[in-house]
Design brief:
Length: 214
């Protein structure tokens, strides 16, 4: 819900995002993110949405898996600090929709075809106290303005992934050590995966004597 209580958004099981005026309760906008609408967008050949046929088919399969899987978090939607945009995850990526023009301004994470983002959170700093996170001048390649750029950061989690993803305006730094890139897998595997690996190891060990050729 927007901090100044002008409007609020609801995501529903029918894959639609509905925006209501807070004071009157009247419906302002509806964004259809159903699988049928996604197929229509894919057929439209609009560059913003266009995916390779194999990639789109894979994403549709993931959507159907999500529908069949229990306890999957419902995708959320959120506003930016001044209510210019609404942001929400879809099978195409994370859409940023301009509420004034009613058009999609950008899709984040579209190239991350192995990740279906579900829950997101936005950090923009505290606008009221002017404590907005800034990009240091040294980290900006070209910035002719005297004022440093603000650096909003989007935090996301994805279906069946045990990590947090960050989207920022800054390019990731390339470390000198090639083994220490931006993808660092530090999290422990979940208990069910550890158990499965343990069971596989036991079955291989116990079956070796019966399968060895002398």
């Amino acid at each position: 819900m927007l901090k100044i209580f002008k409007e609020f958004a609801i995501t529903s099981p029918d894959r639609r995002i509905r925006i209501f005026w807070y004071r009157t309760g009247k419906l302002r906008r509806v964004y259809d993110e159903s699988l049928e609408n996604a197929q229509d967008l894919q057929r439209s050949d609009v560059p913003l949405y266009r995916l390779e046929a194999i990639d789109f088919g894979r994403r549709m399969a993931v959507e159907r898996e999500i529908e069949k899987t229990e306890n999957v978090p419902q995708p959320n939607a959120l506003f930016d600090e001044i209510s210019n945009f609404i942001i929400y995850p879809t099978l195409f990526g994370i859409k940023i929709v301009n509420l004034h023009t009613n058009k999609v301004s950008r899709i984040l994470g579209k190239v991350e075809n192995n990740d279906r983002f579900l829950r997101i959170a936005l950090y923009q700093g505290d606008q009221s106290s002017k404590k907005v996170r800034k990009i240091p001048a040294a980290a900006v390649n070209v910035n002719e303005s005297k004022d440093p750029m603000t650096d909003p950061t989007l935090l996301c989690c994805a279906f069946k992934k045990h990590r947090i993803y960050l989207f920022s305006r800054r390019e990731p730094e390339e470390p000198d050590d090639a083994t220490k890139g931006r993808d660092v897998f530090k999290e422990k595997p979940p208990p069910d995966e550890l158990m499965a690996a343990s069971d596989i190891g036991k079955s291989v060990t116990t079956s070796l004597p019966e399968n060895v050729i002398y």
